[in-house]
Specification:
This protein has helices at 21-53, 58-86, 88-109, 116-122, 132-143, 149-154, 156-178, 182-201, 209-215, 228-235, 241-259, 261-267, 273-299, 304-322, 328-356, 362-370, 372-391, 394-412. With 424 residues, the chain is mainly α. The longest helix is centred in the N-terminal third of the chain and has 33 residues, at 21-53. The radius of gyration is 21 Å and the shape is globular. This is Organic cation transporter-like protein 2. One of its GO terms (cellular component) is nuclear envelope.
Length: 424
């Protein structure tokens, strides 16, 4: 079946690539994504300690996390429409400026002479516009042919892994050596640099002229960035809603487990902070290898439908094993399967969804996809905490197995695309 995105990217590059060219813009996009993710995980590593220093308890810390998740959840689709209407340069620049504002407020919160608690909560507000990763996905989607897209999107896993490992390491090292405000200062400088690079090196638009003309038809009123009807309209296009629901439902149980992982690592695995950090580094390395290298190779041999089914099947198997695990060694044995399922699900569904919509709507679609993880971060602490305290760790495995087994039955009854087809 011919999809909405097949007509774009067939060996043609949008005009306005500048001196960098198509490959140079893609490489810079990977670099910018890695920089932003590194700073993000630097922030995550110091937030619990900064909250404690300011006298906040775990409940108040949970409120911060919820505010961050809700704002990203609400801002994702709107940011995607902004990127579609104003182009890649504006989207990257806006995201880096929003991140700079967050880190500036964090630096101010570290000052004893300023109202630290108020500034700490205020630092969550720019999260609504911090969407560098969806912006990077949009650029890569616009500049790659459909056959190359899963591998190209998968390489963003290398950026994510670098962010997890380097960001967590730098955050702890800098805060211990130079004070808790040091990681925030470094992140502020890096994000200002990212804003400059975005404004000077990223092209105004990475979409083809035909897509830009489609986005702004002559005589038609210019749609608002906040037009919710235009956002929800995408979900009703053929082939979109089933894939999007699979993305949300299949990944939600593992998302609950990851939200509760810091508590599980302390209470169930009996790990110290340093040991938990090593485990997260192992997770980051696995994600770099699997999403950056393995998914791309598999996508050249198997259809996206086959990879989607495989990810859900492995989710079910890992969930069954997770219900039986008794220690951290068992979890380490399960991690490769868990990471494979997470990476395959995210890369394949993002690729399928961007192929199902027109070139002028890829940013909005990726913004919707980017809202899935904040949704888990918003609902996860309450729902995950209730399940954990009521039933213990095995419940996460039982839920993951049951949910993904039902999703697998649904997928098995659906006509899936062959190697050269794109979506259902």
């Amino acid at each position: 079946m011919q999809d909405a995105g097949d007509s774009r990217g067939q060996g043609q590059s949008p005009s306005g690539m500048g001196a960098l060219g198509r490959s140079g813009v893609i490489l810079l996009t990977y670099v910018l994504a890695a920089l932003e993710l590194t700073c993000l995980f630097m922030q995550f590593s110091i937030m619990p300690y900064l909250s404690r220093r300011l006298g906040l308890d775990s409940v108040a810390f949970g409120y911060q996390q919820t505010i961050f998740g809700v704002l990203q959840l609400l801002g994702g689709p709107v940011f995607g429409r902004f990127a579609d209407q104003h182009g890649a340069r504006a989207a990257f620049t806006l995201s880096f400026l929003a991140s700079s504002a967050l880190y500036l407020l964090l630096v101010a919160a570290c000052s004893p002479s300023l109202p630290g608690v108020a500034l700490l909560f205020a630092s969550r507000l720019p999260a609504a516009l911090m969407h560098t990763l969806p912006a990077a996905q949009m650029v890569i989607t616009d500049l790659t042919v459909p056959e190359e897209r899963p591998a190209a999107l998968g390489r963003l896993g290398l950026c994510f892994g670098i962010g997890v490992i380097v960001g967590s390491l730098l955050g702890g090292t800098l805060s211990s050596a130079c004070g808790i405000q040091c990681p925030a200062i470094v992140a502020l400088v890096v994000n200002l640099l990212g804003a400059v690079l975005s404004f000077t090196c990223i092209p105004t638009s990475t979409k083809e002229a035909s897509a830009q003309a489609q986005a702004a038809l002559p005589g038609a009123p210019k749609a608002s960035v906040f037009d919710l009807k235009a956002i929800t309209r995408l979900l009703l296009q053929p082939g979109v809603l089933p894939v999007f629901l699979v993305k949300v439902i299949s990944g939600f149980p593992s998302g609950l487990f990851m939200v509760m992982f810091s508590i599980i690592s302390m209470d169930f695995f009996q790990l110290e902070a340093a040991q938990s950090g090593y485990l997260m580094s192992f997770f980051g390395v696995l994600q770099m290898v699997i999403q950056g290298l393995v998914i791309g190779r598999l996508s050249s041999h198997f259809s996206e439908g086959d990879l989607l089914r495989a990810s859900v099947l492995v989710f079910s198997i890992v969930g069954l094993a997770m219900a039986l695990m008794a220690n951290v060694f068992h979890f380490c044995l399960l991690m490769p399967g868990l990471v494979f399922s997470l990476c395959a699900l995210n890369v394949v569904t993002d690729s399928m969804l961007t192929k199902a919509v027109s070139a002028s709507d890829t940013g909005t679609m990726l913004g919707l996809c980017a809202s899935v993880q904040p949704l888990t971060r918003t609902l996860g602490p309450t729902l995950g905490g209730l399940l954990y305290h009521s039933f213990g760790v095995p419940i996460f495995g039982h839920v993951q197995f049951a949910v993904n087994f039902l999703v697998l039955l649904f997928l098995w009854r659906q006509p899936m695309p062959q190697k050269k087809d794109k979506v259902w």
